[in-house]
Amino acid sequence: MEENNLTVVTEFILLGVTDRPELQAPLFVLFLAIYLSSLVGNLGMIVLTQVDPRMQTPMYFFLRHLALTDLGYSTAVGPKLLVNFVEEQNTISYDFCATQLAFFLVFIISELFILSAMSYDRYVAICNPLLYTVIMSPRVCWVLVAIPYLYCTFVSLLVTIKIFTASFCGQNVINHFYCDSLPLLSLLCSDTHEIEVIILILAAFNLISSLLVVLVSYLLIFVAILRMNSAEGRHKAFSTCGSHLTVVTVFYGTLIFMYVQPKSSHSFDSDKVASIFYTLVIPMMNPLIYSLRNKDVKYALHRTWKKICKHFSLKSCTI
Predict the structure, then answer these.
(1) pLDDT digits over 140-167, tens only?
(2) Three-state SS sequence of 43-67
(3) Mean pLDDT of the chain, nearest integer
(4) pLDDT at residue 263 tops 60
(5) Are 148 and 66 in contact (CB under 8 A)?
(6) Quick one: pLDDT at residue 5?
(7) How far apart are CA 43 and CA 67, in angstroms?
(8) How sure is the predictor about 95, in pLDDT bands with cuts at 50, 70 and 90?
(9) What is the per-residue pLDDT for 3?
(10) Could you give the dihedral angle defined by the CA atoms of residues 247, 248, 251 and 255, in that order, rounded to the nearest 10 degrees?
(11) pLDDT tops 60 at residue 316
């Protein structure tokens, strides 16, 4: 009977964002616009920070990987969400569900540690400017992203394998718009205590450790800024942190709202709203935040646009 339960479920039904037919078309258009904006913005940021010679610094190295993680987890969720708006039966195969969960976890957890690495980078730039290039060498930068990627891949595979090697009962309806760990746990008929403990410990470690690095880095940054005698120096220091601090506040704020709310007020509907925000809206916002608040990115966009215009001899191109 136990083995039979493992082979019963071959696909899952995703309940999606809403079951109201009149909202399907407007939401499809809205989420399509959001996803395409995220796709263009993050791809543009990856290409821009790669090809522009003035952006070959640790700060933009991490920004490139932030855009990569944004693109990764939004693409793990977005296309399937859009397809479900135009299909009558919102199904997802067993294997694709496991794949979606694995890729989503890799990129969403990686973003936590990329943001903490960016905080450390800003701390070194402001508090140790003379040693910045020595401390934040290319090798150190690669270590600060490679280790999180390897760790997050391990965590993702551990959680995904634990869930999908457990026994699913006959129920295959997921009360979500993508395959997430918590809704999947509710479909298991085997004991979920071990998996729940593993997920809780890993989630707590990931959130607390990365947030601790961010908080300590910015505490030291603020202390250093307050000790500056020059108002211009303080303004410049704040401006270099403004974009990252905005991204950190929005991202961690959403995750804390979702995972730290009291159990009495916890519901899958509130989870859906929070999930839409951090899987689709935040990846769209991040390139905009860095483009609007960062002069280097603006100048790089101008230079790249001019090169494109010159290459294709577009006389009408002006910025």
Answers:
(1) 999 999 999 999 999 999 999 999 998 8
(2) HHHHHHHHHCHHHCCHHHHHHHHHH
(3) 85
(4) no
(5) no
(6) 43
(7) 7
(8) very high
(9) 46
(10) -170
(11) no
Strands, sheet with 173-174, edge to edge from the N-terminal-most edge strand: 91-93, 11-14, 173-174
**In the structure encoding, which two tokens stand for residue 303, read together?**
């230079």
Count the neighbouring beta carbons within 10 Å of the beta carbon of residue 200: 11
pTM: 0.87
Instruction: Give the chain's radius of gyration (CA, Å).
Output: 22
Give tens-digit pLDDT for 274-311: 888 889 999 999 888 887 666 767 676 767 666 666 66
CA distance 289 to 116: 18
Cβ atoms 170, 210 nearer than 8 A = no
Q: Is the dihedral of CA 305, 307, 309, 311 positive or negative?
A: negative
Cα torsion 175, 177, 178, 180: sign: negative
| Lowest model confidence (mean pLDDT) among 4-18, 24-38, 45-59, 173-187 | 4-18
Tokens of 61: 């190295």
Contact 274, 260 (CB under 8 A): no
The per-residue DSSP string of the chain comes to -HHHHHHH-SEEEE--S---GGGHHHHHHHHHHHHHHHHHHHHHHHHHHHH-GGG-SHHHHHHHHHHHHHHHHHHHHHHHHHHHHH-SS-EEEHHHHHHHHHHHHHHHHHHHHHHHHHHHHHHHHHH-GGGHHHHT-HHHHHHHHHHHHHHHHHHHHHHHHHHHTSPB-S--EESSSS--HHHHHTTB-S--HHHHHHHHHHHHHHHHHHHHHHHHHHHHHHHHHHT-S-HHHHHHHHHHHHHHHHHHHHHHHHHHHHHSS-GGG--HHHHHHHHHIIIIIHHHHHHHHHHHH-HHHHHHHHHHHHHHHHHTT-TT---
Please report the pLDDT score of residue 98 as a whole number.
95
The CA distance from 238 to 113, in Å, is 22
Q: How many CB atoms lie within 10 A of CB 264?
A: 6
